[in-house]
Amino acid sequence: MLVRLALLLGALLLASALVGCETAPPLTPTQWEALETRRVEGQRDDVLRAASAVILDQGYYYTASDHAAGTVTAAKVPSSQRDEFQRNGGMNGPVMVNMVSIWVVQATPTECNLRVQYRDFGRHVQSNERVSTFWTEVNRRMLKVPSAPVSVATPSATGAIGQ
Q1: What contacts 99, CB < 8 A, 6 or more positions away?
Q2: Which is more confident, 120 or 157?
Q3: HSE (side-chain half, CA atoms, 13 Å) at 122
């Protein structure tokens, strides 16, 4: 009887703790725009080219592009979903890919607004870190500063490959 009472009391405490949790209200379109948009120095075509290259560097493949509008959309299949994605014929069925979309708009004669939007499994992602990383890589490309070097595996001591 005492054990039942303790379990009931524990369940009530857990329920009251859950009721007291407050979820953050959804962001407004203006808040999303502020989170996802950064100013980049350069001409629209140069910024669009640099941002498109960063998309490929991050492992995405292009799904749609409109140069005149300054937009590119790309997708990446997470490694945990690749087998299922391939067995189901790609894009058919549930959303199994992560998406990134960019918009580049000339804001001043020397600067552009670059907006980058991430969606993971169809859900809009609120990540200042991902946007900042993207923006940093675009700026690095605009300034023609190389990214961190990629390590390449060296051949075996015999110098033969594939033996």
Answers
A1: 63, 73, 74, 75, 76, 118, 119
A2: 120
A3: 5
Provide the 3-class DSSP secondary structure of residue 17. helix
Give the Å distances, CA to CA, from 86 to 31, 91, 117, 134. Answer: 36, 9, 25, 28
* Phi, psi dihedrals of residue 35, rounded to the nearest 5°: -70, -35
DSSP assignment string, 58-108: TT-EEEEEETTTTEEEEEE--GGGHHHHHHTTSSSSS---EEEEEEEEEEE
pLDDT of 7 above 80: no
- Identity at 119, one-letter amino acid code: R
Helix or strand holding residue 113 (H, E): strand 111-120
Q: Is the pLDDT of residue 11 over 60?
A: no
Rounded to whole angstroms, the Cα distance separating 124 from 110 reads 30
Beta strand 123-124 with 98-108: parallel, antiparallel or unpaired? unpaired
pLDDT of residue 84: 66
Domains of the chain, CATH where assigned: 27-142 (3.30.310.80)
In the DSSP assignment, the letter for residue 158 is T
